[in-house]
Amino acid sequence: MPPKRTPMTAVDRSWLRMDTASNPMMISAVLVFDKPIATSRLKLILNERFLRFQRFRQHIVDEGDKVYWQNDPLFDIDNHLHRIALPGKAGKNELQALTSDLNSTSLDFRRPLWQIHYIDNYQGGCALLIRIHHCIADGISLVRVLLSLTDKTPEPGSKRAFPTRAQKQPSSSIVGRVLHRALDTTEAATQQARLFMQAVRDQPNYPLKLASTASGVAVDLLKLGLSPFEPKTGLKNPLSGRKQVAWAEPLDLAEVKACAKALGGTINDVLLCATTGALHRHFKASKEVIPGCGIRVAVPFNLRPLNQPIETLGNQFGLVLVCLPIEIADPIMCFQQVQENMNRLKQSYQAQVTYSLLDLFGRGPDILERRALDLLSNKASAVLTNVPGPREPVYLAGSKLVQPMFWVPQSGNIGIGMSIFSYAGTVQFGITVDKAIHADPNDVMDYFRDSFEALSHAALAGRHESKKHQSA
């Protein structure tokens, strides 16, 4: 009897086709723990919580016009879980070098597309370096799957940080959820077109809303197609395929919130402004002319409700192009421009448009997708993700997760990926850069912190001056 197989969705097939030697389509993570984890316990948890998703036991069968997921009859977890140790001092530099090396290497397409490297004796504990192909699922879903391996307390059998069993959502909140338009990825991105249509059908003015939605989508599709290519900068060099990875020491989330409150914006606005300032500092340090119109980054926008447990994998997100005004040196003025750009995007349908385009490209010939991908990737200089994590520390097999970092892949000719992840009162910031792009990832990490501190100082100083004038 032949192994069970299921057709790959058109959207997932799009991400599979994007895989190239210079840009492997892998979502990767580095999870650092305070204590070693027994590999026997790790295997037990993986079997119970990770491999419950059949996708991680399946490999790809590509028949040209059709692509399938097929159960691997020879599946063995030992082909995917490897135990290694770092050389030398086994510190952060060595871990970053290993992550860079593995992120430059494609996965084995003969087997299910994931790998975990267990790293012994890292800073007195251990680390997990995880790589999963993007065609299996989007980054937000995979982060939630990985966090579902953890518990809220060190004791075994305690409540999971992210339960995966389905829970019925109250029907009374559907309309409110789907009509809540927000680009901030820390909020549930409930704008998926199918849910929107289901909700507005129950409204008396459904035809009017439908016409308005259709015209909005058409306008955003036209804007996306007509938007100019990115300016020629050192961030858009031809790619070598060799990755360099770095991450910063985490920010205090309370400080980020205080800055956002002082400026009357969101945490997302503050972090995007800090990212903008980091790139401004990079251009100044490299003595490169700063584009007068800024640069754009592609931001994945979740289309799966965050309060809905993960039952099935797959890609359910769109992309939006966010303009970063790197030409503005003043931190407050930069923040105001970032906030204005974000508010404009909150009223757009870009995420649904790009999701629909990926679905369309996945159904058509490969050459069509390649040309469309080249077109879209010429409209962004980097990919930027911002994913919410647990508010309290979590534990894997009794070991506390002390620092998590995640990266999504870049597509086409985009060679920079930046990631922001909130966890247990901190904000983690990381970057991956193709070696052909002349940007030192560790320097950019320092620039990010410098940029945030400059914005925070200006914001809090301005609030202090405002209170002083009010009391006078």
From TrEMBL:
Residues 8-270 form the O-acyltransferase WSD1-like N-terminal domain. The keyword Acyltransferase applies. It is an enzyme of class 2 (transferase). Pathway: Lipid metabolism; Glycerolipid metabolism; triacylglycerol biosynthesis. InterPro entries: Acyl_transf_WS/DGAT, CAT-like_dom_sf, O-acyltransferase_WSD1-like, O-acyltransferase_WSD1_C, O-acyltransferase_WSD1_N. Residues 314-455 form the O-acyltransferase WSD1 C-terminal domain. Coiled coil: none annotated. It catalyses: an acyl-CoA + a 1,2-diacyl-sn-glycerol = a triacyl-sn-glycerol + CoA. Belongs to the long-chain O-acyltransferase family. This is diacylglycerol O-acyltransferase. It comes from Marinobacter xiaoshiensis.
